[in-house]
Amino acid sequence: MAIKKNELYSSLWASCDKLRGGMDASQYKDYILTLLFVKYVTDRFKGEMYADIAVPDGGSFDDIVALKGDKNIGEGIDKVIAKLAEANELQGVIDNAHFNDDKKLGNGQEMVDKLTDLVSIFQRPELDFKNNRASDDDIIGDAYEYLMRNFATESGKSKGQFYTPAEVSRVLAKVLGIGEVTSSDVSVYDPACGSGSLLIRAANEAPVEVAIYGQEKDIATAGLAKMNLVLHNKASGVIIGNYSTFSDPKYFEDEETQTTLRRFDFIVANPPFSSKNWTDGLKEYGRFDGYGDRPPEKNGDYAWLLHILKSLKSNGKAAVILPHGVLFRGNAEGTIRQSIIGRGYIKGIIGLPANLFYGTTIPACVIVIDKENAASRQGIFMIDASRDFVKDGNKNRLRERDIYKIVKYFNEQIEEKGYSRFVPNEEIKKNGCNLNIPRYIDGGEREDLQNIDAHLNGGIPAEDIDGLERYWKIFGTLKAKLFAVFRPGYYCLKLTKDEVRDAIYTDDEFSAYAAKIGEAFTRWQKRVDKSLRTIHSGVCPKDFIVTLAEELLLSFAPIELIDRYDVYQVLLAYWNETMADDVHVVVHDGYGAARETENIIGEYTSGKKKGQPKVIGWDGKLLPKPLLIDKFFATEQKAIADAEIIVADLESQRDAMIEEQTEEGGVLFEFLNNENAVDEKKVESSAKSLRKKKSSLDDDEKMLLQYADLVSKIKDHEKLIKGLKNALDDDVREKYSELTDSDILELLVNRKWYYTLYSGIDALYTEVSHRLANRILELAERYEETLPDLEKEVATYEAKVRAHLERMGFKW
Q1: How many other CB atoms are found less than 10 A from the CB of residue 370?
Q2: What is the pLDDT of residues 663-677, one digit of tens each?
């Protein structure tokens, strides 16, 4: 059975809850990632001959499971991992987390319970990787990346540097040029590899198997990188840890003489920004010769760049992340930069948003190096992507649309005003080889200038209204409906401000525009419908979404006002959240998986079973319950909705009586409990006595009975609703197994995928009308009152204040 990405992520993150409190994320990440590694290699390689990872007797996750509840469980887990490490020469790689550490995991029974619960989470069905032995392995590697991103977020600025955001890694991998290789003898290197994400992304982009090499100063982080490679099916990759790239580089052309640094075909890197101690123990190897000056001792940015240039073959290519300062700082760095530019090594520069990385908030750039075509290079292609991001907690993050646009524009050298430009060498030299992107790309938004004449004499400046020309081209008659000429060069509204929005939203041309969006979506449906209805085991989900997205961009290319990259974002966001899991399930289990249901697992929150799993509900594996209810059980659902309306009305009557009659002297006042709430049991007891009373009832007694009857009716209807819901729940669960193939395709493709995607795209259309209305109202309000009008109003108020003060006896 296929593993769902989001279920896998949820369970893994739940495992972190078992360790929070005793240590911070920078520490407990090692425990979680190590257990994930042991679980994965056990499921995938145990009992296999010639496997990438040998799983010895006593060195598997099964041996860890046998320790649950054992008083020496911490010590036992350390021994199991030590055996696995020894069998694969992974000492110092997978055995850095010590499970017998009472300072972090607690003493005695506390440690036993904590580790037992932790191991139990890794036994959950969604963490069973036995049936995921081939193409599914990407999902495990992605889960590892997911955990590292979350750990980096929790670890904070000082401890999150081990992780390069996956979005940035993808950009580097796709602009590097490794996807165009044809030779099978290709190498990729990262001299500051961290947890290895850049290397993995680059290797994944290559159409052939490539040799992977990395060096990382921190030994624990190097261990993360090695485990990351294994989980991404790249166990042959070489990671060397515990050595500085400057004082002790580990890759040479001749390992015996170690006189010349090894050269690689491709290099990716996100080295520490502006290192102040890079010269400690420095060994030269000619890395800094021939560039006119040496990198400054207190800033290692250019030291990393020159190391990368030295480590590249004569036709090699690299992509490196560095702080923006490398583009314009002077002195030694300016001299080196001029020399590098003169050699033609820099193919392009991509300016990134600030606050993307976990170790710093400063903006960074990607410098793309291409030695192969250096001699004929006529300039540098620049992209300013600094404004394209979304806030994600306390960090910024590139969206799918941002990644796609950067990669497409860079690889195809597409120029767009304010975003991208090919800058000739002559222009760069005129600027003293200063590569600061704003010198070449004016990415700033047009300043919204105030019009003094309009403030003095009234009217909305024509230049502001005419500046909305892209709207008036499409909605040709709308401008005349909204505006009249106030005086030469100035307009005024024909309508009141309250009427503007309605005039725009109900305009016939706006309706026609909505129809065009619908037509574009229909074009896309026709192009992809067959493929969505014929997904099979040979489909690669990662290639599949690329096709869907490219077709969507083509279909929406003619649509103005809506940015087609926003449409792309709608698809990719839904893909990452839901659709990727759906396609993954269909690929491995077929469309018939839509007939299956699965329990939703939670935890007991109290009692002896606290922390243990329990069933808290169920849902369809592919089709959420509401889809089936809407299609097959509309009558039953309406009966429940009608009953809920009745309950809501009865509750409203009850609440009104409580508000009126719980004050002192009210009928319900004497029935209030210590929490100042009505004691329903006491009310019912009194009502029961009143119903037996043979004499006539007074008004208060009648009101009390009325309240009791309301409460009784509410309870009866709630009981009815509960019964209807339980019966509907049973009927819906039974209906899953009865679904026909056509039912499944209708529900999955039409009602789930298409409906959700169109709703997201329709929201973009709505935003177009909101933007236009907001701008018009902003301008109308800005020039609504002239300066003379405001002065008169101020004078009137001043006279009123003076009169009041004089009447109060104040003189001045």
Answers
A1: 20
A2: 988 999 999 998 899
